[in-house]
Amino acid sequence: MNKSKLGDKFFIKSGILLCMLVLYFPLCIGISMLLIQVINKIDPGAFYRYATENKYSEDVFFSIEIDAKTGVGDTITATFEIMEKELPDNAQAIFHELLKDEPLFLSQLEDNKAYMNYLVDSSLTVEELTAYMKSISNLSNEILNGSFYFSAVIILLILYIFLRFRIELYWLAGTLYVFSILDGFTSGIFSSVFYNPMRLASKMMGQVYTLDQYNMYIGFLPKIKEAFLTFIIFDTIGQIYREKWEKRRSERLTEIYYSLGLVLNMMRALKTANRNFPFIKISKVNIDLHYLCKYASKNRKDLALKEVRELTLIFLREIESSSLLVEDVIIFLEKLQTELNESDNFRSNLMYLGSSK
């Protein structure tokens, strides 16, 4: 392969990787929303178990029934009025805002005697309440962390399965692991070295690049690292099955190759023994020509195998429609043997002959 083709291939693969990188964040958001919907569909109690450390599968702090008994919803509304903020329309945002001024919220809550009595009667504590609120307010981030990992796995598998990126992914995985391990051993100093170069590059492009943004990107690394590890696991499993499949293929091709020689010798012997009866016909040969034809069809770039496919298809059509003379069978088998011997692809797949002639 010349340098221009190598260069074109490099730019094509670089472009594909760039496109996948652009798609990564929208995919993360989409998968995050999908995960929430799936969990809600299968088991909404999973959210409450997460927020209560697997103690409860329902909302034991702010359910509609509890609000009806204690008026805790009015307490929350009053707290937002004191903070002079609008009441958000979802629990995560509400809890996030309340926890910003936790002492104020707790003081308002203590004035709600009915709710405090409910906590005591239910063997619940204020500490458990605030821990629950913190967990719920952070729920989207937890789901997003999972989607960062899962999205990376999807992209890596797309690159691996459909676009045939393998060595490239291993290089990326190795580079990422070296970066991550060095950063871990140096307590974050190694990754900090790259902040200023990236900030200057962003400045040259007219963009503002802050340390918080940089730390956010560094925070993606553990998820992406785990995604690469998942890819390596899948690739290892796939390699095991691939080796088994290649072994079975080699066994069948080797059997076909030796069967071809045996049948050809038998046909020649039959012709010699019946030279006075030249019109003896053959209706079947004990060679798996259908498999050989299928194998040749998948390797049409090999000119010899392309010829093997054409010869085999013609022979199969003729012998399946009517018997063939021994002489015609011998001619076909000799041509087939010659073409197979000319195919490096075929011979490299033989178990015992290797690639030598």
UniProtKB/TrEMBL annotation:
Statement: the UniProt record of this protein carries the keyword Transmembrane: yes
Record keyword Transmembrane helix present: yes
Swiss-Prot/TrEMBL keywords: Membrane, Transmembrane, Transmembrane helix
Spans through the membrane: 15-39, 143-163, 169-195
Record-given protein name: Uncharacterized protein
Organism: Paenibacillus xylanilyticus
